[in-house]
Amino acid sequence: MPIIRNGEKAREIIDKVKKTGNSLPCFCTENIMTTEAIFMGAKKFKEAQNIKGQLPLIIAFTASYEQRQQLKNYSGLSDFKEGLLAVRDDIERIARDEGQFSDINVIVHLDHAQPSDDDWMFKENKDFISSIMYDCSCYSLNDNIKMVKDFVKKHKKDFVIEGCVGEIYNYVVSNEKLEVKDIITEVDDVESYFKETGVDLVVANLGTEHRRTESALKRYRRDVAQKIRDKIGRQIVLHGASSLSCTESKNLPQDGIVKVNIWTILEVNPARIMAGEIIKNIDKILLKESIEKLVNER
């Protein structure tokens, strides 16, 4: 069946990818056009590479994650549940057994799932969502480990589970949040986190950053990724792919990265093309007086 509807089957697919020495992209979406484009791109890649059998594909979205609430944006109604119903309808339709994309196995991933706030979503959609990044990085590392460990015990059979190693905030002894911090994840922290929580995959801060449009502004710490790989194997998920150069992207599999989140390029490139087309045809859209007024305002 094109949609992988349980964690064990999704885990089998990801385990196979680990053994092949490749990295599996995880494409995030927040609208129907991006969802359809992801399927079309996967199909074209499969045909161009002459890949036989089923091609694995991960499609993801965030819910109440503060930095980007993709499900809320997916529907014009600005509602999480409406967004989930909409994206589920789209993926179910596109990936139907008798459809043109039936040779693609789809793993649906809930990214940056927030404890408590997003619980209803994965509990009510176990027959659709088969992978979760359970994000406790807003808590202290000790609390993060405890919460994720408990989540793994309860839901290991239902989902492939990712954990985010590290802390977004500094903490005092009393566990009170202080300022935001941005530091490279310690290799030893990753190793202990992976072993203690029992997660399938780990997200580490390797110097990259979400939603970067200028890759030179951030430095990918390949050396840290490789040290983590040497400790736990190819179990790393990379966020912030928009920070990478082409060469860095090609080297990810050998660095221990088994899964790569991709979203910015799916939104930025079409927006740039659209902006260019609007500028070229601006005289067909606005009156001359309106164009001159806008130019003068700049």
List keywords for this structure.
298 residues, alpha/beta, TIM Barrel, 8-stranded parallel β-barrel, two-stranded antiparallel sheet, 11 strands, 18% strand, Aldolase_TIM, Class_II_FBP_aldolase, FBA_II, Class II fructose-bisphosphate aldolase, zinc ion binding
What does this structure look like?
- With 298 residues, the chain is α/β, with parallel strands linked by helices.
- It has a single domain (3-297), classed as TIM Barrel.
- It has helices at residues 7-20, 32-48, 70-74, 80-94, 119-124, 141-155, 187-197, 222-232, 246-255, 264-280, 282-285, 288-297; strands spanning 3-4, 24-28, 55-62, 104-113, 131-134, 160-164, 169-171, 177-180, 201-203, 236-238, 257-262.
- The strands form two sheets. The protein has an eight-stranded parallel barrel with strand order 2-3-4-5-6-9-10-11, surrounded by seven helices.
- α8 runs parallel beside α9.
- It starts with a strand and ends with a helix.
- This is Class II fructose-bisphosphate aldolase.
- One of its GO terms (molecular function) is aldehyde-lyase activity.
